[in-house]
Records
---
Amino acid sequence: MAERFYLTTAISYPNGRPHIGHAYEFIATDALARFKRLDGYDVFFLTGTDEHGIKMLQSAREQGISPAELARRNSAEFEAMAALLGGTNDDFIRTSEDRHVAASQAIWTKMAAAGDVYKDAYSGWYSVRDEAYYGEDETELREDGKRYGPQGSPVEWVAEESYFFKLSEFQDRLLALYEDNPDFIGPAERRNEVMSFVRSGLRDLSISRTTFDWGIPVPGDEKHVMYVWVDALTNYLTATGFPEEGERSAYWPADLHVIGKDIVRFHTVYWPAFLMSAGLPVPRRVYAHGFLFNRGEKMSKSVGNVIDPAALVDVYGLDRLRYFLLREVPFGQDGNYSHEAIVNRTNSELANDLGNLAQRSLSMVGKHCGAKVPTPGAFIEADTAILTAANDLLPKVRTMIDRQELHGVLAAIIAVVSEANRYFAGQEPWALRKSDPARMETVLFVTAEFLRRVAILLQPFVPESAGKLLDILGVGPDARTFNELTPDVRLAPGADLPAPQPIFPRFVDAED
Ligand code: ME8
């Protein structure tokens, strides 16, 4: 039976419409999910919306609607974004769903039964934008007389009765988790930050509120609603059917949570501590990507300057956007995007390197090989070298995928495509047409077979264009997994090919 692989995005706050940061995280996770599926895994890919908390309540008040209505409207936008981005998520969870209320109350009950929950009075600093409690030492008083948290968002003083989680008692178990599982947190700088945060000592965590009711009621004490992060993190369990045993239970523990760098503490400190308390296995890996900036300008719903992902798809097309986002910015680091960067990157690599190679070779196949897969003669060293370079890609990129080095995967593939362009130019098949037509067929066969291998590998990243390239290579829908990349699988000489069509056209500015 296929090995399972469960991966998730963070669930977004639907207090506004989706922005490019959400699209970025979703596209990256979708590419990982597609890669794993093609590589033979039984994948479960989850995304969704995080609908409770004060941030949602405040946004709803500002708009004069109920938080449930705000969540419903914007959650639909997030679901539409997932579809627009070619998302292959297997489920879309909303934390206002009944199944999630049941799961959150079940994990709470388990933590309470373990003796890790107690009632006390809370007073301290809270950031609504981050939905986070901060110690006074993590905040700063600025010249405007207001206090701000470590991520630059304003904090307010909160004092009320609250349930607490005994986080302070999990310090040793958490440090042991990080030490015994060096891959639990990636990239390395995030792991180091978390370890020094936990080493410096943990305070118990306030996990309920009484001053509003937009949340999941605490079992047995309905005056309290759960702190939004207790319920939010539990979404990953909810989708596996928790607390019931069912078909999806076997996906837990999750193999990978893909999140942004601003929410690492919640996923690598609070979440494993909640799970340990509840006696449940912890996820295998949490990977934090960086932030995307519009030419250095931070975008978020709370700050404004939001760029609509749908508009970007409209202008550039989905595959250009997917390719650019995953190729341009090393995953894990912050990065910029701009119109020029998108156009330059996709024109030079997709249109010039890959598109031209496909266009030039396959139009020759169409004209001079009777629109059939060419019949090769004996290979010379250059032929074997370029096919070997393509064969060597899978083991190489597989390792990078397991470290979420998406940019590295695309860099490795495009480097081999450049090599193939040099091969094609060096062999001059257009000159061979008269001087040595048999050799021309060999060069065209090698190039077509090379393109088949590269197109199969590119499917997770540019699904539509890679699919089209496979169509014109005559590769059927059931011959597109990584099983078809073993050295013995090849295009069948003499097989009929459909008419070639351009796969990666250049992007031309409307005003040009
Ligand atoms: O944090 N660039 O929701 P959210 C890259 N509900 N990534 C970005 C980004 C940007 N400019 N802006 C946001 C939440 N993100 C919680 C998560 S999970 C149990 C609960 C990322 O809507 C951000 O880092 O503020 C996070 O991973 C995701 O988008 C959702 O952010």
---
Amino acid sequence: NRRIVLASRPHGEPVAENFRLETAPVPSPSEGQVLARTLWLSLDPYMRGRMNAGKSYAKPVEIGDVMEGGAVGEVISSTSDRFKPGDIVLGHWGWQEYGLADASLLRKVDPAEAPIQTALGVLGMPGMTAYTGLLNIGQPKEGETLVVAAATGPVGATVGQIAKIKGCRTVGIAGGPEKCRALIEEFGFDVAVDHRAPDFPEQLKAACPDGIDIYFENVGGDVWTAVFPLLNDFARIPVCGRVANYSDTELPPGPDRTPQLFGAILTKRFRIQGFIVRDFASQAKDFYREAGAWIREGRIKYREDVVEGLENAPEAFMGLLKGRNFGKLLVKVR
Ligand code: NDP
């Protein structure tokens, strides 16, 4: 069982030395457990948080432990009557070739319904993050302007397309001309803005002549700085992620901007709410039904970035935090 463990904790951006490839015996399932062979491993920005010591909304990965992560695999052996060899399952056994899990923690994936790896992307955790965060907190209305960054990724692309279905004018932010082209041509955004352009704040302003009603916060950093002055009264801001800040080791330089932020929250009556997708676990059925139909009808499109081989997961993950991925980042393990 080849697996990748956390060798050391990063200070700032993760580096190759923070990961170690190991080989261990393939485990066998005890009562109520299932052994699966990993087919697909999901790489997600939240994993950067798990590499730090100290409790966030979830426990950190300990040094020497297998890196955490969602995976789709094929059942090899099972002592549970819910699963049999050959079944395809979604679980959370991490960066390794074989996963052992309690049957109660696995979900069956139907290969007839959609490509199985979409259970890690548009039809899985990132897709549900987009759906629940946008509809519950963003509350999109016809004619409003929505802005989202990391907009070619699985969360951002889905947010933009659902907002479009709800009648919004959608502005996507991404890094580089190729991604910006995909925002318009593949994902149907009304406008695309490149956050790496030197005049990004001016371009964003020009893209939002009526201001911003919903800002779905995926990145923080300079994107937030450019968005802030454009927010309309009663803007809604689902705070989903801050990938530009995940590897920060100190506060940004310059004066404290908290009074300015709280002043605007008061006078412009913003509604800002952080959320973790599992807060909306009770809406999973609605998500599978409604988003599943939109995907089948071609109203939600998705893009995948596939890396071959478990040994290439660390490099791919480091790239994810810098925007080197183009679409949902997946490792094809076999
Ligand atoms: P993506 O596949 O979109 O990957 C992250 C992207 O972030 C990169 O590709 C890059 O895109 C962009 N990015 C990185 N650094 C910067 C920067 N400095 N400025 C602007 N953009 C940057 O990721 P996901 O769709 O999986 O996740 C999107 C966000 O949602 C993340 O913040 C993640 O943590 C969060 N999330 C939150 C969940 C929750 O429950 N709250 C659940 C799932 C995800 P580009 O090249 O376009 O800049």
---
Amino acid sequence: MWYPEEFDVIVVGGGHAGTEAALAAARMGCATLLLTHNIETLGQMSCNPSIGGIGKGHLVREVDALGGAMALATDAAGIQFRILNSSKGPAVRATRAQADRVLYKAAIRQRLENQPHLQLFQQAVDDLLLDGDGSGARVAGVVTQTGIRFRARAVVLTAGTFLDGKIHIGLDNHPGGRAGEAPAQRLSARLKELQLPQGRLKTGTPPRLDGRSIDFARCVEQPGDGMPGSDSAGRPLPVFSFMARPEMHPRQLPCWVTHTNERTHAIIRSGFDRSPMYSGQIEGVGPRYCPSVEDKVKRFADKGSHQIFLEPEGLSTHEFYPNGISTSLPFDVQLALVRSIEGLERAHILRPGYAIEYDYFDPRALRSSFETRQIGGLFFAGQINGTTGYEEAAAQGLYAGLNAGLQVRGQQPWLPGRDQAYLGVLVDDLVTQGVSEPYRMFTSRAEYRLQLREDNADLRLTAIGRELGLVDDARWSAFSRKRDALARESERLKSTWVHPRTLSAPEAERVLGKAIEREYPLFELLRRPGVGYEALLSLEGGRWRPSPAVDVTDDPRPLVSRETLGADYEAVVEQLEIAAQYAGYIERQRDEVERSAAYENLRLPADLDYHQVTALSIEVRQKLTAQRPETLGQAARISGVTPAAISLLLIHLKRSR
Ligand code: FAD
């Protein structure tokens, strides 16, 4: 049957990509349908019960700054929060949270069910409806398992690990999308028929343990930030969302640390002959940065021990996730290896570990908007683009949902730059480089990471999100208040001067480390190592007047206070301090971005005949013809396209203008 209503956007899949895609399209006012196998698994964490980490936390903050769900759901479900790299520079500091799986899913579902313009429907999608064929093909809707036909103007596919998914435990294997769930085989076959370029990847997960059978006395306790026993005990717990407060978090729990040992490694080696990875049963490439324990033992043969974090899965369960022993070895080997580990001698396995192989699509066949080049209106996001991780999936989902919505509204796609967001880095890496293994985000992938920090994701993106229709009134007014206070205080610090005459030597010594020899603006004093904003204010005491030489605010008193800003006070102070302390570096990075902007964003005509570009090598011509980069910057990042080739292209473009 034909479903009576037509939708603007249909999203297939209710994982991290699908839920953000559907919410984004609906926030923009598009009539949206989220179609998924099972409404009970909306927002399901297939693997580790944690969100964030270095690079990943940055993406979560960006999703949040654009009005997305992941950060707020984590704040509602987080049972342990930590700021990683807290002693390092602000660019690489990152938030990570353990989440209660049940609370996380509930928070996501609650948002979905209360989102205007969004409908949910439970059923597998088996087919795509297309109008036209060849280069003019356009998606027109989807067909479900029972033959219901839904019409839509755009479709976002986020099928995760489900397309022709195959689960491996030892030499046994069976079809599955993840443990206990059916794969999407018909849809996989249909996509193969459409000849979208694809391949196979694999990922794996550890066995889960019953906490009642773990001897925690033999493990080392690891409390979260702000929890008793941590270095930051008593301080407020970290939060993920710019809109969250620590009071939103449920009860906090510690994690525990133990280690593998030589005996564990010998047991693992004894199972190699029955490992699907080493017997050739698994063809897909796995994530290098999340290796299985057998892979670690093989690759780092000289290492006698590997760390394992025992992570609680939630407040209402005894289940534990042993992070570090992902495996697809046979169950008898899994049990023996687990029980060889200190504290786990009597551990009961609740669920065996396994590996899964699945179809992914070459992201180089996507436009920068994540629309497939082959079929108009069909967008891909999440694990099917060759990535791994909830955060990477969520960011892509929001992005594809947004661009599907913009297309339906007849607007140009939003394409963030590499200097603007990790999302820009992620998209650009995928569409220009493709993947040879599951792609995960790291801060090292971003060349402008000093300006792409977790702490300023809202300052980089919330105004854009508002313009695009993604940011609601509550977030916008909270953000505007914070941004305005920051701008005014920053201006005041730059225009309020301190003269040596007004500052006693002992006071200068106490706060600045030494006396000042000439007049300084407060902003410049804040740049001195070890000088914080509040210490500067204690020094200021409201005595100074704006220098007559500069354009200043009328009132020299501080505009930032706990009374006026409430919970945002700390965030504003942090921004002021970072802006002052890293001013030189940030300025240099901005100059670099400006210098490369003209070249970076120079658009390449869609019909450019690379064979007509004089002196380009055949290899470069073939690569550019196959990949059709949209800008000169993208062309430069395709492997094998040399700076010399870019110069030739530039000359060609200038001549043909
Ligand atoms: P998923 O979360 O897989 O969601 C896909 C959704 O689409 C599901 O709701 C599914 O029911 C639905 N769906 C699929 N096909 C259809 C269809 N035809 N019709 C209707 N609905 C459909 N990530 C890491 O970062 N590190 C790891 O170590 C790691 N290990 C993993 C181990 C395993 C065993 C698995 C399964 C995943 C692992 N992941 C890991 C990956 C992580 O789970 C994914 O990156 C993330 O969940 C991807 O999100 P997604 O939204 O793209 O897809």
---
Amino acid sequence: MAKRKTNGGAEDSAGSILSTVAGPSVPPHPTRLEPPATGTSTETVASPKVGDGQPAIGENALNRPLDRVRVDDSARELTTNQAVPVADNQNSLKAGLRGPTLMEDFILREKITHFDHERIPERVVHARGSAAHGYFESYEDLGDLTRAAPFTAAGKRTPVFVRFSTVAGERGSADTVRDVRGFAVKFYTDKGNWDLVGNNMPVFFIQDAMKFPDLIHAVKPEPHNGMPQAASAHDTFWDFASLSPEIAHMLLWHTSDRAIPRSYRMMQGFGVHTFRLVNAQGVSVFCKFHWSPMAGTHSLVWDEAARITGADPDFHRRDLWEAIDSGQFPEWELGLQIFTEDQVAKFPFDILDPTKIVPEEMVAVRTVGKMVLNRNPDNFFAETEQVAFCAAHVVPGVDFSDDPLLQGRLHSYIDTQISRLGGANFHEIPINTPVAQMHNNQRDGMHRQAINRGRVNYEPNSLAGGCPFQAGARGFVSFPEPQHGSKVRGKPELFADHYSQARLFWISQSLTEQRHIIAAFRFELTRVQTPAVRQRVLALLANIDEVLVASVAEGLGMSVPPPLPPATDRPPYDYPPSPGLSLFARPGSMGIRTRRVALLVGANTDLAQARSLYASLLDDGAVPRLIGERIGPVVEISLETAPSVLWDGVIVPDAMPAVGDVTVFEFLKLQYRHGKPLLALGNGAELLKAARIPHTLPHGVPDPGVIVAAAVDAMEALASVKAVLAQHRVYARETDPPRV
Ligand code: HDE
């Protein structure tokens, strides 16, 4: 993969800021970089950190305020935390060379004490994650819909920091487990921070915040033995699920390929809840947020995902990092579904119910901007680990709906940060600090950074001229939604339709995707040890679709039980299929960029040919590598360290030895099993033959992804490989169990 010079590209004004501020000579105590000389004292000038809202292409305005705290150790002396130069970092201070260590050794004590406290609690959910910087650019002025800062002008750019995550696993767990993915975006707008804390699936497991701790307790490792890690395939999760029919719709998303994305760059994101947008006149519409990846929506297959867990537990983290590092910046378009109170009254579902989508056929998705991630963090802990998202962080122009799940979230996030990040001042940790200016009378607390000046820390005041003063209509004004009704614990009636949209999802899937859902239920429920739990899940599925329940039951060796009694007398709503719910609806426009291709080489390989194939793949933005038994002058990675599942396709150039070993066969078989393109040139074809790779699909027609060609036709054959790579994989090859 071609390396860029800096960790973020041309914008990396970090370099230029460094040279203007620090100068070419080394200053005496340069552990901190000063803020850029742009802008004066921040007291009177509005948001100098944001600039004019139109940073140059590729620039992250956020880099500048963060540069204030970035530390560069090059050409510096080692010091203590008090900046005292350390003479000897190898030996503690002792009473004689063989004597006891002296209490006096403040250098040793400081070092060990800091180390002892290096860890903070991990997130109670979404502990495992990866993040990047970038920007959001609005395509248009959305002033008619909202006064939210990112949308006030066409072309306006707002810096963002985005964290992707799994939900159930612990901080060190593997990336490619079956799970929902978090998709949390922090917009550093010029009117304060807005966090759109979403997931890669548009619905959720439960309808009310009251059930969240139960759901999470059920899915996390079981409390008596701490197993299993990062997996829903165990009794407690399915026990809870089987007793919570509102989960039906989400179970289908969870067993679908959405739960095993190929890359964070290749998954959608959703705000899940209905939100409100409010314009400057105070007029409000409802809104659902959608992120759509320009790279298309692509997934792993389960056998592959499970093997990647061992081969590279950091698979998604590495993929995101390497893509950004090589200048292949991931992009998503933001889409809005906008609807009014009048439309809501006619929907066959309740828009406050987070287990329901608004089908695109009912309300089209309007594309309003794009997000580009163009800079990796400098420090995982300082940025990715300490970033604190909160569903309650909104800016003027965005408001909440009464979705009872969302309402519970509004409390939880700030609350959890207080224990995770050690106190009420976590907003002062640089990655969480707004780019817009903060002024209020909140004071003190653990680890306070701001040095608030003056004697006034209350309001109203006359001694400070009434400052900081209320913003009035320029500030956040809650939408004055009329409220009625008695205090009650319960749910609206439409919430009880648990199955109509589950069925909608099912009938909108391709046959391939349906087969994967069936196989996922079989896998998960086979791991469940309690037969009654399996039985109840089948009874729930019986309300969704006959083929689905019969196929899952067959896989479990069980008969189909009577359906679980529905929770409402209303007949189910008969939705027509919604093709956009299939992953295949969004192939993307990336071609083969960032696709990883293995060129298998041996002692006899025609290296000239291998190199020209390599160069051609590189030209198209793919990531080719020469793979063989042992690394050396030719081979870049060995088969044992980069097994088959880490590659999107394989090429055997001409004159590869006619017979391979078990490792090579295994490599080719798994490429085949996982639907990836295989190209064998000249003599290389013998290897495919020896590995018993079929050339035809199960129903007899030629497999477009198994390509055998004469050595002279190498480039033409490579074009066919590229075409299959761009389509992701040959799903038509799949059988259950696999043929090879
Ligand atoms: Fe979260 N969620 N959540 N959640 N959530 C957290 O906040 C919570 C829900 C989501 O990368 C926690 O800072 C409750 C839905 C993401 O740092 C915590 C409920 C959606 C992230 C919390 C929900 C999400 C979190 C844990 C139900 C999709 C990771 C650490 C009432 C729309 C953000 C933290 C990151 C994290 C609570 C449901 C998304 C405990 C109580 C629905 C992406 O506050």
